[in-house]
Amino acid sequence: MHNHAIDGMDADAFAGALSVPRVALFPRVSSTMDEAHRMGAEGAPGGTLVVADEQTAGRGRGGKRWTSGQNQGLWMTLLERPGTASGLDVLSLRLGLHAASVLELFSGGPVRIKWPNDLYVGPRKLAGVLVEARWREQKADWVAIGIGVNIVSPPEVETATGLLAGTRRSAVILALVPALRAAATARGPLSAAELAEYGRRDFARDRRCVKPAEGIASGITNDGALIISGAHGVAYYRAGSLEFAN
What we know:
Elements: E1 5-6, E2 9-10, H1 11-18, E3 23-29, H2 32-41, E4 48-55, E5 73-80, H3 91-107, E6 111-114, E7 118-121, E8 124-136, E9 139-150, H4 169-185, H5 192-201, E10 208-211, E11 215-220, E12 226-230, E13 233-237, E14 243-244
Parallel strand pairs: 3-4
Antiparallel strand pairs: 1-2, 4-5, 5-9, 6-7, 7-8, 8-9, 10-11, 10-14, 11-12, 12-13
């Protein structure tokens, strides 16, 4: 780990360029989320960043496996210590908004957000965000912010896409981490500006869905709930997966 580098940059070089207290680079881990939680339990400071070339057991929401082959993508987790629960309920959406604007620099097309935490270019998935908090006495002790980005399109996944050919992982890290940290420091519900940007990037808007309920996806509320307009009126969903009718 200590001599590992990405595009010629070692952990110290990344820490200096990003102004974060600690960066851990791994050739291979089970999951960068697991490593970040382990470091959090050991007292690692907010801003600690874990990056791996390959994950053998990467995961997404609901325990789903996330294919994360060697050097095919950016697999990383950022550890933050927010000190307050304010903003945590909308954090994955806020991270998605911040990440989308950065990844658009490398994607060759508009990046859209599929509630609650996936990023798409066209009809294909580019990235996913996963947020896990660890609590102590009703207070968030730390938050692990995981993100997986396909640098190259994984050949075994027809519904996935990657970034522009030649994109360097180091460039994405240097652009993405400050945006994620900014999202993590924001407090309170989504602002009018954030809701407006979400509206522009909304992958589901006006599409017919079957989960978490049948109806038409009609945006989100400022506390992150998905709005579905159905036969029995308007309903709000704060959990579950969004699936579309074919």
